[in-house]
Description:
The structure holds 2 protein chains of 2 kinds. Chain A has one domain: Rossmann fold, CATH 3.40.50. The radius of gyration of chain A is 18 Å and the shape is globular. Chain A is 39% helix and 18% strand. Chain A is α/β, with parallel strands linked by helices. By secondary structure, chain B is of the alpha/beta class. In chain B, 34% of the residues are buried. In chain B, the strands form 2 sheets. A 6-stranded parallel β-sheet of chain B has the order 3-2-1-4-5-6, sandwiched between helices. A 5-stranded antiparallel β-sheet of chain B has the order 7-8-11-9-10. Chain B is elongated. Chain B has 2 domains: 2-119, 3-Layer(aba) Sandwich (Rossmann fold); 124-218, Alpha-Beta Plaits. Chain B has helices at residues 10-21, 34-44, 56-61, 78-91, 107-112, 121-132, 211-218, and strands at residues 2-6, 26-31, 48-50, 70-73, 96-100, 118-119, 138-144, 149-155, 176-183, 186-189, 201-206. Chains A and B meet through helix 3 and helix 4 of A and helix 4 and helix 5 of B.
Amino acid sequence: MNAIVIGCGRVGSNLALQLAREGWDVTAVDEKEEALNRLGEDWSGGFVLGHGMDIDVLREAGIEEADAVVVATDGDNTNIVIGQVAQQRFDNQCVVVRVLDPARAEFYRGRGLRTICPTSVAIDVLLDSVRACEVRPAETTSA
Amino acid sequence: MYILVAGGGKVGANFARVLLKDRKHEVTLIEQRRDRFERLEHEFEHQVQVGDATEIFVLERAGIARPPDVVAALTGDDEDNLIISQLAKEKYGVPKVIARVNDPRNQAHFDLLGISPTVSATRGLMALIEHEVPEHDLVHLLELRKENLEIVEVQLPQGAPAAGKRVEALDLPEGARLISVTRNGRSEIAVGATELQPGDQVLAILQPGKEDELRKVLLKK
């Protein structure tokens, strides 16, 4: 199975490494050459230098045969556009897009794009952690 | 009309300026960069707001839910212009959305996502420059995207197959017509009886993709 990870920063690189460990053939895409360092010296997957908005770069990364595409650059809008291109132009069935802004993540989720919002996830986890503490707010009289 | 302009750079600010000159329109300009915003505020006062126009709360603060008659996404970033256009059109039902394309290579993304009309200064400039460079045998002058037509200019060289022929005798491809002929600085509408000569500048209207067939008839290359 082929996976493409677009944006090879802290999130993308670790995701690419984990997918590779799980047996995927992974190609990472990033516009900075240094991003390759994040994958370590033993990286045996692919790496394409370029911007994910560039159709030629996506083709070189093998988007036409990819079974899964993960879009995780540091720009929400860039990710949303690339995700839609992967889904609508290249007909990829499994496209996962990182969107930090909860409002945009929700809007595009409603339009059929699989958006993951780390901000919302962080809020939920933090809330759960607070709730798990053995302290409670005082009962409010108005409630 | 109420017109929302996203992006207060040279393009956005000048567009807002022109709109306001008419005194017929209500305009809100959104600029993300604080330094730029402060300069614009001197001129536009309450008509400019600071913020990232791809953020929904910023758009709503600027009145996108009314909705405006027109939203113009004119930032220097194509991804941002795409998102602003999609939000305006699909979330808020803005009837007319105009998007700026900075890098012509991104035009395909706007087309894919149904964002039209688009404007591209780079593409326009390229056509103008091509027009001045003599090596180009066929120059794109104007693209009518909505009509799926384009207007091109060719100059007939010595020995061109069309030279010496009347327009009606040319075997022009389906979907191509000659518009005008310019000779010695004088232009005429091209009619069937117009005779072409070497050195003529000919304007033609055609469907995109017919360039090579037109070249063959006029220039043989």
